[in-house]
Amino acid sequence: MSPTRAWVFGVDEAGRGPILGPMAISVVALDRQAASALRRAGVVDSKDFGAGPTAWAARAELAALVTRKAAAVSVRLVEVDEIDHYTSRGQLNALERRVTAEMLRELDVGNDERIICDGRALFSPLVALFPSLEAVDHGESAHTAVAAASIVAKDARDTAFAAIVARYEPEFGPISGGGYINAATRRFLDAYRAKHGALPPEARKSWGAKNDATLPLL
Questions:
Q1: Fewer C-beta neighbours within 10 Å, C or N terminus of the chain?
Q2: Per the domain annotation, does 17 fall within a domain?
Q3: Of the candidates 191, 189, 214, 216, which has an alpha carbon nearest to the alpha carbon of residue 204?
Q4: Any idea what the CATH number is for the domain that residue 180 is in?
Q5: pLDDT band at 4 (very low <50, low <70, confident <90, very high)
């Protein structure tokens, strides 16, 4: 690792809340020039784009731009089985911290490099491992690296969910609702269970368990 690289590492996730499909966590490293270029290109919080095909296309285009401009990009899909393993024990926050720490280590982030994570309560414990880490709420609004990470993570989540829709649409018709616990998602899950006697493998079986931010870091 070079001690001279002037990068900001932004961290964000997408898909923490849905009952259907994986969660995506992304780390994006930007230098000052890349951050300025991405701001001018319209990189903001992924949630600002809304939902639906138009929003998905806009995020996909910007995610590709982030990948081209960033000094480093890492994204990981956390699959349903792993989410269930942690959430059934009330450890979803611990899972997010563990995966984030692994990703930062893989990027060889040094103790003196700036890391900004979205979620003060969620990510503050990682300061014990990365002294220069800043855990802030609404980080996407203030830091381009975090906004870029949010777009990359949401694009990965969008792609994963689109694959789920494509898998089941021939059997159950259009699947809307984004995988969140809402009427549209419930209709699909109820129809699947009525036909197959169980929830689909992409559904989080433990959903509804308590998520406790005070549990151990790793």
A1: N
A2: yes
A3: 189
A4: 3.30.420.10
A5: low
| Helix, strand, coil percentages for the chain (3-state, nearest 5) | 50, 15, 35
10 Å CB burial of residue 216 (0-12, 13-18, 19+) is exposed
Burial 25-43 (b: 16+ CB within 10 A, else e): bbbbbbbeebbebbeeeeb
Q: Is pLDDT above 50 for 95?
A: yes
Q: What is the pLDDT of residue 213?
A: 43
Strands 114-118 and 8-14: parallel
Q: What's the one-letter identity of residue 161?
A: F
With vertex at residue 182, the alpha carbon angle to CA 180 and CA 187, rounded to the nearest 5 degrees, is 105
State residue 1's pLDDT score. 44
Q: Which residues, other chains included, contact 209 with Cβ-Cβ below 8 Å and sequence gap of 6+?
A: 87, 88, 89, 90, 92
Residue 69 token pair: 């401009």
Residue 44 lies in a domain: yes
Q: What is the pTM of this model?
A: 0.90
Number of structural domains in the chain: 1
With residue 28 as reference, give the H or E element that holds it.
Answer: strand 23-30
Q: How confident is the model at residue 138 (pLDDT cuts 50, 70, 90)?
A: confident
Q: What is the spatial distance between Cα 69 and Cα 177, in angstroms, rounded to a whole number? A: 32
The angle at the Cα of 144, spanning 135 to 177, to the nearest 5 degrees, equals 80
Task: Identify the weakest region by mean pLDDT among 36-45, 48-57, 110-119.
Answer: 48-57
Looking at residue 208, its pLDDT comes to 61
Look up the domain containing 72 and give its range: 8-196
